[in-house]
Amino acid sequence: MRTRTFGRTGWKVSEVGYGAWGIGAAWWGKTDDAESQASLRAAWDAGVNFFDTAYVYGDGHSERIIAEALAGKPALVATKIPPKNQEWPPKPSTPVSAAFPADWIRSCTERSLRNLRRDTIDLTQFHVWTDAWMRDDEWKEAVSKLKSEGKIRAFGVSINDHQPESALELVASDLIDSVQVIFNIFDQSPAEKLFPACRKHNVAVIARVPFDEGGLTGTLTPQTTFEKGDFRASYFKGDNLAKTVERADKLKGLLNGEARTLPELALKFILSHPEVSTTIPGMRRPSHVASNTAVSGSAPLSPALLDRLRAHAWPRNFYGMWD
């Protein structure tokens, strides 16, 4: 497993990390905790040392599964504080005191520490963000105090879906250590302004949704159905599924010696951008771990193939459930 430097922290993180939304027993249909733990252990054995979770992934369930599977292992664990007002994404007019008041930041941090069975959280992130909150000092002081107490080591934000420019002011402020953002073959917009800003200010980039919630795996068809409780039934509602499959099929025509499968192409596209510190595919099964981690260490995509992939960018937002 190849590692990359995680921004100003200096941490050496696996370039393929572990996205733990899918093991949270919520949003993705049925989960098997034993299988989830097996996949976490397989990831660690394969060299993955960065694991990203959040309290809302099953009201702490994902955090607790990670704690059990990785007990005693020096893994780097990132989690997220949900907005107190449950506004996803926040309106610029919403005061930060409604989403992240100081007492909420502290109580959520303490709760996640208990779930993770740790004395310190490596990376705590706000689960939503707007640069309108930059003028407020309460959250800054709360985060700074948690750092000084050793409760957290680093701080970042998870940027709102398909809004990479909503955190440019924060990145330039030197107040954060990382940003997490949707970045994949379909949504290439972070490369325009966010990545250069992160490079300039030495802010780590966590690339999430590398497979477009399954759209870039090559396994979906227009007839695919999703089980009860799987949020993708909403994500791929209406003609969204058919449109996604059509675009994914066009990408299959680009498979060659550089990438033999669509998931390999999707991960290599992301890792061909040096600004990315790590990408966090969901890996609920050990078989997913094996195929995804195998991509690490291989050569980046050629400039010619990257140029061809730029033509496949697809600006849209299927997250209507949060509109």
Q: What structural category do the secondary elements indicate?
A: alpha/beta
Give the CATH level 1 class.
Alpha Beta
CATH superfamily: NADP-dependent oxidoreductase domain
Shape descriptor: globular
Strand order of the largest sheet: 3-4-5-6-7-8-9-10
What is the residue-mean pLDDT, rounded to a whole number?
94
Question: How is the biggest beta sheet arranged?
Answer: 8 strands, parallel
Termini separation comes to 38 Å
Tell me the number of structural domains: 1
Topology:
Blueprint: E1 3-5, E2 12-14, E3 18-19, H1 33-45, E4 50-52, H2 61-69, E5 76-81, H3 96-99, H4 102-116, E6 121-126, H5 138-148, E7 152-158, H6 168-172, E8 178-182, H7 194-201, E9 204-208, H8 232-235, H9 240-252, H10 262-271, E10 278-279, H11 286-293, H12 303-310
Parallel strand pairs: 3-4, 4-5, 5-6, 6-7, 7-8, 8-9, 9-10
Antiparallel strand pairs: 1-2
Describe this structure in words.
This protein has helices spanning 33-45, 61-69, 96-99, 102-116, 138-148, 168-172, 194-201, 232-235, 240-252, 262-271, 286-293, 303-310; strands at 3-5, 12-14, 18-19, 50-52, 76-81, 121-126, 152-158, 178-182, 204-208, 278-279. The protein is of the alpha/beta class. The chain has a single domain (3-322), classed as TIM Barrel. The strands form two sheets. The chain has an eight-stranded parallel β-sheet with strand order 3-4-5-6-7-8-9-10, covered by helices on one side. The longest helix is centred in the middle third of the chain and has 15 residues, at 102-116.
